[in-house]
Amino acid sequence: MESSVIPAERIEHSIYAIRGKRVMLDSDLAEVYNVSTKVLNQQVKRNLDRFPEDFMFQLNREEFNRLQSQIATASLTKRRTAPYVFTEHGAVMLASVLNSPVAVDASVQVVRAFVKLRQLLASHADLVRKIHALEKKYDSQFSAVFKAINELMEPVEKGKKKVVGFRAGGK
After folding, report:
1. Which domain does 23 fall in, by range?
2. What are phi and psi of 16, to 5 degrees?
3. Which end of the chain lies in a sparser environment, N or C, as judged by fewer CB atoms within 10 Å?
C-alpha cells in the first residue's frame, strides 16, 4: 500500500523553473519530508559532498525577491536568508541524508511529480511540432488561425495581458 505524505498536486505546484532548472524550495521539501527547514538544511550542510550545484544551489538576492513577489507564503516572507533549491536529483538525495521511512516514501512522490512535469512539457513540445507540420501542409488560408494558436501558446510576459479576439476592420 502506498503512503502519500503530501498530495501529489501539492508537490507538483511546488516545482519552479529557476536558472533553467526545475527545482523545489528547501521549505517545501522540508514539509514533504516532515522535518523542519532548519533540520533539512543542517543535514545538507553536513553532507555537502552529496549535493553538487546540479543537485542544489542557493538563490541569489534577485531570484529570492522575484520568487517572493510571485508566491507570497509565510515561510518565504519570514526568511532572512535566501532559500536553497533542489533539483529532482537533489530532492532524491535528501531522502538518503534524512534517512527516515517518511523521507523514503516522500522521495517517491517527489520523483513522480518531476516525471509528470517532464511528460507534460514533452507533450507540449510534441503539440507545437504537430501544429508547425500542419502549417506547412495546408495553404495560407489557415495562416491566421495558426498565427492565433501560436500566439496563445506563447508565455505571457509579467504585467502584460494577451489580447484574444478580432478587431473590426482587420487592424
Report:
1. 8-113
2. -120, 155
3. N
d(CA 161, CA 171): 18
Q: Could you tell me the pTM of the whole model?
A: 0.58
Q: Could you tell me if residue 159 is inside a domain?
A: no
* % of the chain exceeding 70 in pLDDT: 58
pLDDT digits (tens, 9 = 90+) for 109-142: 766 777 777 777 666 666 667 766 766 666 555 6
Alpha helices in the chain (DSSP H): 8-12, 26-32, 37-46, 61-70, 74-77, 88-98, 101-137, 143-153
Residue 41 lies in a domain: yes
Residues 6+ apart with CB under 8 A from 54: 21, 87, 89
Q: Which three cell numbers stand for residue 15?
A: 516545482
Count of domains in the chain? Answer: 1
Assess if residue 169 is contained within a domain: no
User: Is 118 inside any structural domain?
Assistant: no
